[in-house]
Amino acid sequence: MCSNMLCHAKKALVIIWAMLFSIEDKPADNEVAVRKSWNGSVVSRTRGKSHMMLPEVCLKTKFVLMVIIMLNGLAMAQRVDCKGIVLDTDRQPVKNATVSIYTAKVKTGTSPYCPSCYADCRKRVRTDEMGRFALLALDPELLFKILIVAQDYCPRFVDDVDPGKSPINVVLSPLAPERLVPSHVMRGRVVGSDGSPVAGATVSPIAKALAKTIMSRRITRRDPNEFDPLAATNEQVGTMMFPVPCTPNEVDPLAVTNEQGEFLLTAKAPDLTLWVTIRARGLAPCHYRSLSAGSTIHEIRLSRGCSVNGSVVQGDIPMEEGMIGIVQEGRRLGVFFGEYTTGLRKNGFFRINNLPPDTDFYVYGKMESFQGRGAVSVRQFRTGGDGSDVDVGELTLERGHKLTGRIILSDGESIPYKTRLLISRTDAWDTLICELDKEGRFNAYNLPSGEYNIHVYVKGYRISSKNNASPDKFSLKGTINRDIDDLMVLLEPDRTISKPKSSQ
């Protein structure tokens, strides 16, 4: 999230860009003016009257690039680092411990944003020989929940970490002997497609598999074309495994493979079977659904995956700033891997590697990164077999839509300070956050056409059914395919929340 000052500075940059390129370079008398396209090819030559001219369009480009670098430096300067040290119970440093950001939340106000969806939640580092670590360039408006894991130690969470304050000291305890009993331990080994061990891979439990009894019934009819009340029935009883989300209190929340590709997860209950997600640098992620407790070492093989590439253009001009997102169409538990993102390169080109093969995806431009310039709509594609490449072609930067409105509390109360509105696209894994003013008003620009959910959270309230859309408890669903002004969103007291009894 950018500060208001930085957002205004970026808007000013867009205006400066437009002003610079609205100046027509005019050559002197009898001088040939050579105009070039973005790739350097000559497109026209003209003669003109005597006027002062800039040497080349590249001066404008250099100026704008200089301003971009300054703004990026300003953005980084506003972010802060979180430093600390990891020790054991004897106050000795723990080296090679993995320190990662688990979730985040806003310091002040409210936000309906998913706690694990902030960009900083992807950051992970390892401790050095002295047990020190540094998570760099964090959002100063957030508080973080940090997870520390190390081989032969119990994982440890640290809540409400405020980056930029004094370094944090974390003490890890050794694994309890009772959790190293085979019936409480799940072991595995992660290897690449060639069978070589994969070091540094993360293994994250997402669910535990529970067996449920099911009954299947088959009816045998004497005449399949007629109803037969006396048809014979064959019944069979069996079991089926169903995934149930597990909590960090039940199972270690994360494991990291060692140099031999080996990992270990421990559980409070015996004889569990887990669904886990495995991620490793340079390889496609993998879901493994049969990690059972016991002495068996499960071998999990990762492949290279697929690559996708394309470009973003505005007319015939390639865009060299912006973020591209890619997300799966299927988002069920045990299928979904989350979002992949990358920045645009020279000539508007982008490429993302290590996608799961034979999977349907959406590719799109991230709304926040194209603010002030336009919007990039969603495009569908499917990856091929392992090792294949997909070219999605040119994505076009077009004019987006405007959405303005107001959040109103039905009982006349005022909107709490720093209440945030979340505008999220249904197909793309993409959101825009707006901070409401004291009257509950909000403004959003450059929204691509499509289906949206509007989320807002005010404690003790829910979205009213009187709104002119299909609401659920905390969101409003609808289509944006034109500019929308003065959208009124009504919140009403949530009567399902039990109020504390008054003392007599």
What is the count of structural domains? Answer: 5
Percent of residues in helices: under 10%
**Tally the helices: what do you get?**
2
Strand-residue fraction? over 45%
What's the CATH C level of the largest domain? Mainly Beta
Average residue pLDDT:
81
Please name the CATH architecture of the largest domain: Sandwich
Rg over alpha carbons = 28 Å
Count of DSSP E strands? Answer: 35
Question: Uncertain spans, ≥5 residues at pLDDT below 50?
Answer: 1-8, 14-58, 73-77, 227-232, 499-504
Largest sheet: 5 strands, antiparallel
CATH topology of the largest domain, anyone? Immunoglobulin-like
Overall shape: globular
> What's the end-to-end separation, in Å?
47 Å
Report the structural category.
mainly beta
Task: Sum this structure up briefly.
This protein is mainly beta.
Map the helices and strands.
Blueprint (H helix, E strand, L loop, with lengths): L3 H19 L9 E5 L5 E6 L9 H22 L1 E9 L9 E9 L17 E3 L5 E7 L3 E8 L6 E6 L6 E5 L12 E7 L10 E19 L11 E13 L10 E2 L5 E5 L6 E7 L6 E7 L4 E5 L4 E9 L2 E2 L4 E6 L11 E4 L5 E7 L4 E6 L9 E2 L2 E4 L6 E10 L2 E9 L10 E6 L5 E5 L5 E7 L2 E7 L4 E3 L6 E2 L3 E6 L3 E10 L11
Parallel strand pairs: 3-9, 10-17, 18-26, 27-35
Antiparallel strand pairs: 1-2, 3-6, 4-5, 4-7, 7-8, 10-14, 11-12, 11-13, 11-15, 15-16, 18-19, 18-22, 20-21, 20-23, 23-25, 24-26, 27-30, 28-29, 28-31, 31-34, 32-35, 33-34
